[in-house]
Amino acid sequence: MDEINLAIIRHLWNGRKPYAEIAKDLGMTTNTVRNRVNKLLKAGVLQIIGLVDPKAVSGHYSAFMAFKAVPSKVAQVLEQIGNMKGVVMASCVSGRYDIMAVMFFNQEFSHERFIFEELPKVDGLLAVETFFCERGVHWQLRYVL
Length: 145
Description:
Layout: H1 3-11, H2 19-26, H3 30-43, E1 51-52, E2 61-69, H4 74-82, E3 87-92, E4 99-105, H5 111-118, E5 125-132, E6 141-142
Antiparallel strand pairs: 1-6, 2-4, 2-5, 3-4
């Protein structure tokens, strides 16, 4: 990952920006930008996706969820949570919790359903705390429901 790739990625914040415009802004050819983006995509470093503002989609809401796990099972719990419906992103973190996840819910797949139907299936989970999102800056999420 070099400075040119990072500059291209910054331009791709607007995922619909043409490669020709990016190339012009960065002083390179369109083919060079296209080739670099394709290499980043193929390597799994970059993903071009559509994001939504949860508040703009009727009946949807988002939350951060913090999880405490049995120390010997943190990696296993992370894997299970990361593959569950409604999970936008999950990661091991430092602090009083072991795992934080960004969640997306709606009327059909609610927080209550996640807590009472899905989480009991996770072996090694000790505690959960939910932080509902009221508002945010640049708060857009992958639509996972």
